[in-house]
Automatic annotation (TrEMBL):
Its EC number is 1.1.99.14. Residues 36-214 form the FAD-binding PCMH-type domain. It comes from hydrothermal vent metagenome. This is Glycolate dehydrogenase, subunit GlcD. SUPFAM superfamilies: FAD-binding/transporter-associated domain-like, FAD-linked oxidases, C-terminal domain. One of its GO terms (molecular function) is FAD binding.
Length: 341
């Protein structure tokens, strides 16, 4: 279909929401997986739910494919556009609609940044648990589309475990509500089906997330090993003892050196591998479990076990892990990223 004719049929969309010139389209040619690029046929940035419905009905009527896009930080190519389709950006859906602390819920639009949810409720002692490395920039809609996790997903789960309700629009323009703010909802678990579907089943226009009370104490231990195998065995031993760390992350020597040069997190650059283990909860329980973990790490051959001295150092340890991707990107424009969970 001719693009100008298609645009002429977008009666409900203001001109400011339509990008068609090459210079305007170029920033949308890829997401975080920049090895694959494709200039989109057309980029649309709707501002209301009604505009999204109108766009999808128009695309459906003229058999024009649609790719949804959040913040574009994904590493799986989920927002890679098509040369014959519409790239539908939800960037203007960026408002926190409601915060319900008694029920530990927040209702947000899909363009809201992951970290912005925690920032909005931190003063009241709450937070949103999933914390992907790109949380300062990634959007909650993209998190749902990719079922994002983060360094604390071992204990607190992925996005699918931390959302209560979704509102989405089908390709025919129908608005659906899946899930419920209550603890359970009747019928099939379609909420789980939608989470991780990369926009293939509908366009998310609203997300109700679950909030958690901030733990009384969080403490992280850094352990250095002479081999990756020893660090891996330490992971197995910690889990087999029935301990459930809030976060448990392993980095090899190449990642450690790249991160230390970039972030200066205080990592030992001569280690073959390091392990970050965080425990949180009641202060007494955390202290007891830290002692258990320290003993297990030493038994597995850790040549250094270091407990974060304060909250600033704890955050710095995790900042290093979360910066692993850009840290390696400083060394080479192209590399393979393999994320094992």
């Amino acid at each position: 279909m001719d693009r100008d004719t298609f645009i002429a049929g977008l009666h409900d969309l203001p001109a400011r929401c339509i990008l068609k010139d090459e210079a305007e389209l170029r920033p949308y040619e890829c997401d975080g997986l920049s090895a694959y690029r494709q200039l989109p046929w057309l980029v649309l940035l709707p501002e209301t739910v009604e505009q999204v419905q109108s766009v999808l009905r128009h695309c459906h009527a003229h058999k024009v494919p649609v790719v949804a896009r959040g913040a574009g930080t994904g590493l799986s190519g989920g927002a890679l556009p098509l040369d014959n389709g519409v790239l539908l950006s939800l960037a203007k859906f960026n408002r926190i609609l409601d915060i319900d602390l008694p029920n530990r819920l927040a209702r947000v639009q899909p363009g809201v940044r992951n970290l912005a949810i925690t920032e909005a409720v931190a003063a009241q002692g709450f937070y949103y648990a999933p914390d992907p490395s790109s949380q300062i920039a990634c959007s909650i809609g993209g998190n749902v589309a990719e079922n994002s996790g983060g360094v604390h997903c071992l204990k607190y789960g992925l996005t699918v475990h931390n959302i209560a309700e979704l509102k989405l629009i089908t390709i025919e323009g129908e608005l659906l509500t899946l899930g419920s703010p209550s603890l359970d909802s009747p019928g099939y678990d379609l909420l789980a089906l939608l989470t991780g579907s990369e926009g293939l089943l509908g366009i998310i226009v609203e997300v109700t997330v679950r909030l958690l009370p901030a733990p009384e104490q969080a403490q992280v231990v850094l352990a250095a090993f002479d081999s990756i195998a020893a660090a891996g065995q330490a992971v197995a031993n910690i889990i087999s003892q029935g301990l459930l760390p809030a976060g448990l992350e392993l980095m090899d020597t190449l990642a450690v050196r790249a991160v230390e040069d970039f972030v200066h997190a205080g990592y030992p650059v001569d280690a073959a591998a390091i392990l970050l283990c965080e425990l949180d909860g009641d202060p007494y329980e955390v202290d007891v479990q830290i002692e258990q973990v320290t003993r297990l790490l030493q038994e597995c051959g850790a040549n250094e076990v270091r407990r974060a001295r304060d909250e600033a150092e704890r955050l710095r340890f995790w900042a290093g892990r979360k910066a692993a991707f850009p840290a390696v990107g400083r060394l080479s424009p192209d590399y393979y990223c393999m994320d094992g969970t």
